[in-house]
Amino acid sequence: MLALLFSVVLLGAAANATRLLDNNLAYRSPFKNDATLAHDTSAIQARSLVRRQVEDATKFDDQHYPTFYGADFGNSPFIWSGGLNFTHSVASGDPFDTSVLLWTRAVPISPSGSSQLPDQSVPVCVFWKITASPELKGSAVSSGQAFTSYDVDFTVKVEATHLKPDSLYYFQFGDCSNPDTVSPIGKTRTLPHPDTAADQVNNGNPLTFAVFSCSQYQAGK
Ligand SMILES: *[C@@H]1O[C@H](CO)[C@@H](O)[C@H](O)[C@H]1NC(C)=O
């Protein structure tokens, strides 16, 4: 009984340890029936931990990492804190009536004036939020945090949920460790509820669709 309880607790801890990696849908296989294209987030998490353990901890104030799974990563050696560049702005797609996928790319940058490559062995953490206000004013309708890494070319793909059907939304990503560093604001919209009469969609105004696709099956993209 105790052993069972222990393994349940361990499983719980293990699931939690990859939560921020798993929040990034870019690690998942794009095909439900082909798991081989998914990234092993447990292995990526373990890689970061190994890296942490060989670091000299004395130079960090925060010896016990209480904030690692919290909201404040400012002092965490587990994540990249040397600056990010949202090199490819933002994108969104695959809308449903109450959700939409949000995308960006958050690349670690070298210290200014340095030709040194940034340390890529720790994950990059981004936060995101989506609101109905073009200036992102007021509280977010949906928000979260996710990790990315070189495994997925520093791309981030998250699902914003709890949205209203047939509605416009605005979203933005930012750097967890330097919250002043933010991406451009993206504009997106949800689909109408499936029962909406065709002449009621988009308040009866015309609606234009653009379809874009880019895939490389063997690379899982
Ligand atoms: C950020 O990325 C853009 C696009 O690749 C590039 O032009 C710019 O120089 C980069 N900025 C920094 C600070 O690395």
UniProtKB/TrEMBL annotation:
Highest taxon of the lineage: Eukaryota
InterPro entries: PhoD_N, Phospholipid_Metab_Enz
Protein name, entry field: Phospholipase D N-terminal domain-containing protein
Signal sequence residues: 1-17
Keyword Signal: yes
UniProt entry keywords in alphabetical sequence: Signal
UniProt KW Magnesium keyword: no
Pfam families: PhoD_N
Domain Phospholipase D N-terminal: 88-190
